[in-house]
Amino acid sequence: MNKVDPKIFRAYDIRGVYGVTIDEDIVYRVAQAYVSLFKPKSVVLGRDVRESGPSLWEAAKNGFIDSGVDVIDVGTISTDMLYFTVAYYGYDGGITISASHNPKEFNGVKMVRQNAQPISSDSGILDIRDFVLAGTRIKAERTGTVTKKDIIDDYCNKVLSFLNTPLTKEYSIVANASFGVAGLALRRLIEIGKLPIHVKEINFEPDGTFSKGNPNPLTPESTKQSQDIIRNSGKIDFAVAWDCDADRCFFFDENGDFILGNYTAAILAEYFLEKNSKSPIITNESVYLAVKDVTDRFNSKLILHRTGHSFIKATMRKEDCDYAGEASGHYYFKDFFFADNGMIPLMIILNLLEEKHCTVSELYSKFRTQFFVSGELNTDVKDNIKVMDIVKKAYMHGGKVIEVDGISIEFPEWRFNLRPSNTEPLIRLNVESMNKELMEVKTKEILALIEKNKDVQ
Questions:
Q1: Which of 6, 182, 259, 439 is a good FRET partner for 159, with 20 to 30 A between their CA atoms?
Q2: Out of 42, 67, 78, 100, which one is annotated catalytic?
Q3: Nearest to 44 by CA among 143, 144, 163, 135
Q4: pLDDT value for 423
């Protein structure tokens, strides 16, 4: 591949279609650009389960060792295992070859610096882009070394440190690993922690072909798998599902009802504020009323933030937040190096079920019956900016316009957020209200306006 498409360098990662917009040569140069920019001596290098992963991993390895940098080979990992390995063992930084929940033809690069500090378009990705576009290459006098490292037990022990309430009952759960490594990690967590958890496994064996479709826990096909087992298997306490790289998680209650991420963001905010009410809480601006209800009750500071893990992590460090949560299913923890983790929320939900002696539906009831949300609704449009401007002009009169992340317009009884995706060619709509009927009416109304103008250029 001779020409590099600069669009693969996104707000908080690098991502493209393998063999079309991303290949071994580009990843080799990304690794060398990383070295040029951050000057590491040792880096962690992992990958997810995709079929293109091994060859891209090899390219990144060569880019590092040709630059004189030592590589720590952690094999096939979840993205949160990258964060853990870099910060826990004190390496200079790291990369994982992953395209998260995107279809199998995609792949990409996620990067962190020392202490798992994020790298975004504000802190290095654009410099890496410029290095790659310039065609620069490094050849050091010394060739770096490659050392394999098994991190799974240390990682699991770190996750288990968040399980601070002994489990006094046995739990039956459904778990969907989306063909990534979350299933293997959960098995080891249960084994090491001697947890009384019985798991009905879905898509547990790593499979880079994603034989049942996209490795996204939010697709109708994926959610139906969990729901069918819950509803047909008798007593199930709840279900949990991860995306392919296991840094996001979602829950279902004992009735098989899917729980939107903003409700879990609020549950976790309440959990941490009960421990430290002085800590600020971060959530994304697209959906926040349930989290605001929690911070208002604790009289704590709420920081509304643009979507994106790299940006949120940077603000967490600056504000010294114990916790941040996004409706997208990313949850961040100060005690996990200010990074997101897909297993820790499971530990906390188990804590709460033990402490409160309740079901999952009872745990979430106060939020699900008070705050009504559309869920994230995605539409393909020709021009994101023009469609957003059309919607803004239609609703700005009488509403408060906020442009932290896309556009939000707020009214006394309802609000909405419209933003372009950072990872897919989509425009995303979220509507929320404390009145269910009003939320539904406004959702249909705005979607109709977007649909009418989706081909505008």
A1: 259
A2: 100
A3: 144
A4: 60
Over the stretch 377-418, which tens digit does the pLDDT of each residue have? Answer: 999 998 888 999 999 999 999 899 998 889 999 999 999 999
**In contact, 44 and 95? CB cutoff 8 Å:** yes
Structure tokens at 201: 């496994």
Which of 181, 139, 138, 120 has its CA nearest to residue 156? 181
**222-245 residues labelled b (16+ CB within 10 A) or e (exposed):** bbebbbebbeeeeebbbbbbbbbb
Please say if the pLDDT value at position 190 is more than 60.
yes
Q: Domains in the chain, please, with CATH?
A: 6-149 (3.40.120.10), 154-368 (3.40.120.10), 372-452 (3.30.310.50)
Q: What is the pLDDT of residue 405?
A: 87
Residue 52 has pLDDT above 60, yes or no: yes
Cα gap 268→332, rounded to integer Å:
10
Clarify whether 222 is annotated catalytic.
no
Euclidean distance between the first and the last CA atom of the chain, given in angstroms as a whole number: 30
As a whole number of angstroms, the distance between CA 410 and CA 22 comes to: 40
Q: What is the pLDDT of residue 365?
A: 97
